[in-house]
């Protein structure tokens, strides 16, 4: 491994009530539900048993920050917030369920399903092209601060999707065939020249959580 490489653990936040309802969150600040808090605790236990982290970065939205805080408390690290790790801005879609979007905004729903990279959700949403550039810039900025070190970034499903595409060379238009599970452990290797995939969607720490009542 190059001496200037940064190892990255990329984590989607724990579950929220709106995840369960299939309601688009975007930039709306929704907290973890009880199950999501339990997922964060199990994640903290798992990361505490692995290679030490040097820094934790998180989206400023509380569902990600709460997840990062659970890990930080266990590891003795204070999460640093960065707005560049926020979920995609979904404009008029935010607060609506998938079914409501189909019913209320059918033409926009079709362009969303087709992954039109230039389409912007009505009322100030981000296109996939804008989101992709934001995530690339943010990751490069954060990783460059930690050559030879191990960091964690806590963000959202849309961010994880872009990170996977960057690391594997998948086009923005490509249908998604990979998981974006809440609090799954995803591993990337960053160098100034490239970002590569090391591991994806490790959920072994959640094996007993799925059976809990919530």
Brief summary of the model shown:
The protein is of the alpha/beta class and 214 residues long.
Describe the model:
This protein is an alpha/beta fold and 214 residues long. It has one domain: Rossmann fold. The protein has 7 helices and 6 strands. It has helices spanning 17-20, 34-48, 62-75, 98-104, 106-113, 128-143, 157-168, and strands at 6-12, 55-58, 80-81, 150-155, 185-190, 195-202. A 6-stranded mixed beta sheet has the order 3-2-4-1-5-6. Strand 2, helix 3 (62-75) and strand 3 form a beta-alpha-beta unit. Helix 2 (34-48) packs parallel to helix 3. It is globular, with a radius of gyration of 17 Å. It starts with 5 loop residues before the first strand and ends in a 12-residue tail after the last strand.
């Amino acid at each position: 491994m190059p001496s200037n490489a940064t190892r990255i653990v990329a984590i989607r936040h724990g579950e929220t009530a709106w995840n369960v309802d299939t309601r688009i969150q975007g930039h709306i600040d929704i907290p973890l539900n009880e199950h999501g808090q339990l997922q964060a605790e199990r994640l903290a236990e798992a990361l505490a048993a692995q290679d030490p982290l040097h820094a934790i970065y998180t989206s400023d939205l509380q569902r990600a920050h709460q997840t990062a805080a659970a890990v930080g408390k266990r590891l003795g690290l204070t999460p640093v917030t960065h707005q560049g790790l926020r979920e995609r801005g979904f404009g008029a879609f935010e607060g609506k369920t998938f079914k409501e979007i189909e019913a209320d905004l059918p033409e926009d729903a079709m362009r969303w399903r087709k992954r039109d990279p230039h389409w912007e959700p009505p009322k100030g949403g981000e296109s996939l092209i804008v989101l992709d550039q934001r995530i690339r810039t943010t990751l490069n900025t954060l990783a460059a601060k930690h050559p030879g070190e191990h960091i964690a970034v806590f963000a959202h499903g849309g961010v994880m999707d872009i990170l996977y595409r960057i690391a594997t060379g998948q086009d923005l238009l490509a249908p998604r065939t990979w998981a974006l599970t809440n609090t799954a452990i995803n591993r990337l290797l960053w160098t100034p020249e490239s970002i590569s995939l090391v591991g994806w969607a490790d959920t072994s720490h959640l094996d007993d959580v799925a059976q809990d009542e919530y």
